[in-house]
Amino acid sequence: MPSGKQRGFTLIELMVVLVIIGIASAAVGLSLKPDPLQLLRKDAERLAQLLQVAQAEARADGRPITWQATAKGFAFSRRAPSGNGVDDLRGDALLRPRAWETPGLQVRIEPGQRLILNAEWITPPLRLVLSDGRHSLGVERSAAGQLRVVEQP
């Protein structure tokens, strides 16, 4: 014959345990650092997309667009519509200056030192090598102007 006392956990006890597990999981998740290769890949893919946009803009507008990189970020610029001065495209939603997400990113342009996107439909092949010191990824442009992210040895 069963006694009047039941065994088990109450709903409140189970909820308290679940809340503690959730808080512990969140603390562990927030303490993890992002994968450096993932940040580098994100920068490379974003750069490939924006270079594609800049190339299309240069073809539509007829004015060449120059891309320049620093350790902190990159920017696009072109000759102002009046012909006097330079438009740094700060007001452009897509081609505005941007910061790298990868800390200490280094960029190498092969071949040459400057990257100029012009109205030509056939362009010389180009490779940008992005490196964080440990990992390297390339952004390659084919003669047809297609850009893709590739692993670097």
Automatic annotation (TrEMBL):
UniProt KW DNA-binding keyword: no
Cell location: Cell inner membrane
GO BP annotations, alphabetical order: protein secretion by the type II secretion system
InterPro entries hit by this protein: N_methyl_site (IPR012902), Pilin-like (IPR045584), T2SS_GspH (IPR022346), T2SS_protein-GspH (IPR002416), TypeII_GspH (IPR049875)
Membrane topology reported for the UniProt record: Single-pass membrane protein
Keywords: Cell inner membrane, Cell membrane, Membrane, Methylation, Transmembrane, Transmembrane helix
Protein family per UniProt: Belongs to the GSP H family.
Entry protein name: Type II secretion system protein H
